[in-house]
């Protein structure tokens, strides 16, 4: 890369790349270049005309030449590329080292927009759909940043995060989380714990909340923490009493609303520190720095925070979206195998929700690498974007959790790992879904990962009693379940007969 890396926006036609790039360039006070416009200037004719008279190949040749010049030129500017520019292998290799942001647009939106502007490739719906899926997987492979096609200013608002990505350790990828009440960047990569989360004022002090086990392994990787609060590890400490201890420690360290917490650890630390941040002085920012598979694929994102009551899990809490998430995958090297396995249950859950490429990968036995972690995180972010406060769609994320949580409560916190309980809960949910084959397939995946697939002697009645305390239940009616029709087709709010729940739980006891 000659000079400084460029920020390059890629994505399907109709994603709004040109507008987003223009707004981002304006926010930075730098130039914007759009490959389609440059090709038109060079050929002296509109693209549609070039397609019709000279054919697509002629257009692609001109496009490749223009884009290669742009990328080699360097300089501080923002570039938007035509949807097909990345089909060229030479363009793809020239993109290495630049910040390449995929502006992700839904098929329907893309179709409407592209048709309205009479794009040459948007004349036939079936061909358009096929092109959309083929290109989308290409964009996903090349991109280092992922922006939702939310509105024209989203690129400009993500500016600090895109800049931080330029300076991040090699191989780091960033996704922009966009929900009703807040937006924030998530960084997934090796060594990202050393980053300072973008978007917080330089004067904001970082106060680390972590558990004693994680502190021993990973505290040193953080960039200059200004304060530290350590809690004992384990689900049994995810309580109001521990939160209160954290609050007292924050007061003792003179923490103010101008400071922020860094939750360094697994889901227990993330939930508890997030909750402590949500309530301390009525709310201070929290940066989530997840160090377990559970936390990196799931719990660090989406802003649910809280503590357990003896009666039921996660019963007291608050929505408090993180200011940023730093998922450093090198931290997983010190994670004990049983904790890796527990995280795998959340991966399988997420893959069932996502369907498509992620499910195919997991079903084929893929290991949990950085790609899988990022894909899971983005699946969760997409669900949360549609329903931040659990009014409907977000409930799909609780697949396997109704019975999973009930098992945890019934057996006593810390007896089963959260992920282990979720794995068992998934098996019960698949039975309730009438998905025998899929249940068998998931059972094999869980077993190969070293997870329990049965719980001999479980007190089914007690578990069923505990499901009645599920937070999704809002009346005297039965607790609604999340069921699976097929991978990628998961539905919330399903009514299930008590007898069927009893059978599904008893099956685990055999
Ligand atoms: N908020 C959400 O959306 C959400 C989603 C899923 C789960 N959760 C919650 O997350 C919790 C489970 O999270 P978890 O499985 O990460 O448990 P955890 O935080 O208890 O971590 C598991 C164990 O691993 C240790 N550990 C953590 N990172 C380590 C590392 N890098 N190396 C060595 N040891 C390490 C911890 O000290 C702990 O003993 C549950 O309380 C669950 O309710 C919340």
List keywords for this structure.
binds nicotinamide-adenine-dinucleotide; alpha/beta; 46% helix; 510 residues; 21 helices; two-stranded antiparallel ribbon; twelve-stranded mixed β-sheet
Structure report:
With 510 residues, this protein is of the alpha/beta class. 46% of the residues lie in helices and 16% in strands. The protein contains 21 helices and 16 strands. The protein has helices spanning 17-28, 35-43, 47-54, 56-73, 89-94, 107-116, 125-142, 154-157, 159-167, 212-218, 240-252, 267-279, 293-299, 337-354, 356-363, 370-386, 401-411, 418-432, 436-448, 460-467, 498-509, and strands at residues 7-10, 31-34, 77-80, 99-104, 145-148, 173-178, 183-189, 206-211, 227-231, 260-265, 286-290, 304-307, 316-319, 324-328, 481-486, 489-494. The strands form three sheets. The chain has a twelve-stranded mixed sheet with strand order 2-3-1-4-5-6-7-14-11-10-8-9, with helices on both faces. The protein has a two-stranded antiparallel sheet with strand order 12-13. Strand 10, helix 12 and strand 11 form a beta-alpha-beta unit. It is globular. The model has no long low-confidence stretch (mean pLDDT 94). The chain binds nicotinamide-adenine-dinucleotide (NAD). The site of nicotinamide-adenine-dinucleotide has 30 residues, from helix 10, helix 12, helix 13, helix 14 and helix 18.
């Amino acid at each position: 890369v000659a000079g400084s890396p460029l920020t390059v926006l890629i994505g399907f036609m109709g994603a709004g790349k040109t507008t987003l790039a223009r707004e981002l360039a304006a926010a930075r006070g730098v130039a914007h270049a759009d490959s389609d416009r440059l090709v038109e200037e060079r050929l002296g004719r509109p693209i549609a005309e070039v397609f019709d008279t000279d054919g697509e190949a002629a257009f692609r040749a001109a496009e490749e030449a223009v884009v290669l010049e742009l990328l080699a030129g360097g300089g501080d500017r923002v570039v938007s590329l035509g949807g097909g520019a990345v089909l060229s292998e030479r363009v793809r290799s020239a993109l290495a080292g630049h910040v390449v942001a995929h502006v992700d647009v839904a098929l329907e939106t893309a179709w409407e927009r592209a048709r309205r502007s009479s794009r040459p490739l948007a004349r036939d719906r079936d061909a358009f759909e096929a092109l959309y899926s083929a290109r989308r997987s290409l964009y996903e492979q090349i991109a280092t940043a992922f922006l939702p096609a939310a509105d024209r200013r989203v690129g400009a608002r993500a500016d600090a995060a895109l800049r931080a990505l330029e300076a991040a350790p090699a191989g780091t990828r960033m996704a922009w989380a966009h929900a009703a009440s807040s937006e924030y960047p998530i960084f997934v990569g090796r060594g990202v714990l050393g980053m300072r989360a973008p978007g917080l004022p330089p004067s904001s002090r970082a106060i680390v909340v972590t558990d004693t086990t994680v502190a021993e392994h990973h505290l040193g990787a953080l960039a200059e923490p200004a304060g530290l609060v350590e809690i004992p590890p384990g689900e049994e400490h995810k309580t109001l009493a521990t939160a209160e201890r954290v609050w007292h420690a924050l007061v003792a360290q003179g923490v103010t609303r101008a400071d922020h917490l860094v939750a360094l650890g697994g889901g227990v630390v993330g939930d508890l520190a997030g909750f402590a941040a949500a309530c301390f002085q009525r709310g201070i920012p929290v940066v989530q720095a997840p160090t377990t598979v559970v936390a990196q694929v799931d719990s660090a994102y989406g802003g649910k925070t809280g503590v357990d009551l003896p009666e039921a899990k996660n019963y007291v809490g608050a929505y408090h979206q993180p200011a940023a998430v730093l998922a450093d995958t090198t931290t997983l090297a010190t994670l004990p195998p049983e904790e890796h396995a527990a995280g795998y249950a959340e991966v399988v859950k997420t893959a069932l929700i996502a369907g498509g490429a992620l499910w195919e990968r997991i079903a084929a036995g893929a290991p949990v690498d950085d790609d899988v972690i990022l894909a899971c995180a983005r699946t969760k972010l997409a669900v949360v974007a549609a329903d931040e406060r659990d009014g409907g769609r977000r409930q799909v994320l609780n697949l396997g959790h109704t019975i999973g949580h009930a098992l945890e409560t019934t057996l006593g916190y810390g007896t089963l790992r959260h992920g282990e309980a979720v794995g068992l809960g998934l098996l019960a949910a698949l039975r309730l879904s009438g998905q025998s084959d899929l249940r068998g397939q998931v059972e094999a995946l869980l077993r190969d990962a070293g997870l329990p697939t049965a719980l001999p002697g479980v007190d089914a009645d007690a578990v069923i009693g505990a499901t009645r305390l599920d937070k999704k239940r809002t009346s005297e009616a039965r607790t609604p379940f999340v069921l699976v029709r097929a991978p990628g087709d998961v539905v919330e709010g399903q009514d299930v007969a008590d007898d069927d729940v009893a059978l599904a739980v008893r099956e685990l006891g055999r």
